[in-house]
Amino acid sequence: MHDMGRSGFGTGLGGVAVLAAFFLSGCNSSGSVKTAADMGLERDVRVVHEECAINSAGAEKLDANGDGRPDVIVVRSGGREACRGVDLNMDGRMDAWTYYDSAGRVRRKEYDFDRDGIIDEIATFQAGVVAAKQRATLLANRLDTWEYYQNGMLARSERDSNADAIVDQWWEYPKPGCPMIHTDANQDGRPDPGTTIDYCKETGYVPPERQYYRQTEGPTFRDDTSAPTEVENREESAPPKQEEKK
Q: Which structural domain, as residue segments, surrounds residue 13?
């Protein structure tokens, strides 16, 4: 799923996350510090799938590849679409779910990236725009990453890197693609001075800003000319030929 595999982090940040985790194992202070566990800061890490009644009698089923098994199942409530399940790899098991509000806008999405029947990511939306994501990235079938968005862009995230249900990394994105990673080294539930990693400074990575600011205009599919319009990488048209003077 999302070219990120099970981890959900297809951005190449895994190495830096490991480096940040080093602080957790090698820089812990003395036992005199009250830990996050002592203060009851554990997160609810359950992955909770929202029910979509795809087995109800009124569910609409679409078999796209003709194998006798539904690939898309739509559930309606009061005449409007309430939710749908989609079998992306056509193996007979739903691995993507979409839920709609009363205005027909997306309010929630769930994904099973590795096709094991267990949800790996839950995204919630406000007025049709992504607002937050909960992710299970450690192959433990439990949440470990919480992301928060502003205007549809990732602004910050919190991460439980060692699967103890306590946040120990805080990622902030002052610039898209360039997180500042703060770590709780002494396990008191707060970021510690001296543990911050500037990802782009440490790696020399420069994010392609054009992917955020130069978008492709999407089609409406309402007329014959409604096709995507590419705003860059298009071939430049040849200049008009000059008429020869006689």
A: 1-43+148-212
Concatenated DSSP letters of 60-125: EEE-SSSSSS-SEEEEEETTEEEEEEE-TT-SSS--EEEEE-TTS-EEEEEE-TTSSSS--EEEEE
Angle at 109 (CA atoms; ends 103, 115), nearest 5 degrees? 150
Is the backbone of residue 55 left (phi > 0), alpha (psi -120 to 50) or beta? alpha
Are 5 and 14 spatial neighbours (Cβ–Cβ below 8 Å)? no
For CA atoms 54, 60, 63, 68, give the dihedral sign. positive
In a domain, 164, yes or no: yes
Model confidence pLDDT, tens digit, residues 115-156: 888 999 999 999 999 999 999 998 789 999 999 999 999 999
Do the domain assignments include residue 165?
Answer: yes
Two tokens at 161?
């890197």
Beta-carbon contacts of 124 under 8 Å, excluding residues fewer than 6 positions away, are 107, 108, 130, 131, 132, 133
Looking at the DSSP assignment, which residues form a beta bridge with residue 97? 85, 110
